[in-house]
Specification:
It contains three helices and five strands. By secondary structure, it is α+β, with helices and mostly antiparallel strands. The protein has one domain: RelE-like (YaeB-like fold), CATH 3.30.2310.20. The model has no long low-confidence stretch (mean pLDDT 93).
């Protein structure tokens, strides 16, 4: 477990608002997944996995049925730690 801080990108925030407005019942799942992601990005229940192809170098985790969060783990050289850059959220078909 590592406790990396979450850093949502502007594109993530926009996608999050759109996703939650279309699927408001998934908000608790998404918020729970974000908490777990900050606590341990590789927690078994998140099903975190590396991506390939156009998204090579990034990771995806599950936040419920057909809901994925795409993120990267970035090193913060000044603070000598890491952060999780949230990139996108949506259904499997929307983000891949």
């Amino acid at each position: 477990m590592s406790n990396r801080k979450l850093a949502p990108s502007k594109s993530f925030l926009k996608a999050y608002k759109k996703f939650i407005s279309k699927k408001p019942t998934l908000r608790p799942n998404v918020e729970s997944a974000l908490i777990k992601l900050e606590e341990d990005a590789f927690s078994a229940d998140l099903k975190t996995h590396k991506l390939s192809g156009n998204l090579s170098g990034l990771y995806a985790c599950s936040c419920g049925y057909d809901c994925r969060i795409i993120f990267s783990i970035e090193k913060n050289i000044r603070k000598k730690d890491e952060m999780i850059l949230l990139i996108d959220i949506g259904t499997h078909d929307e983000i891949y």
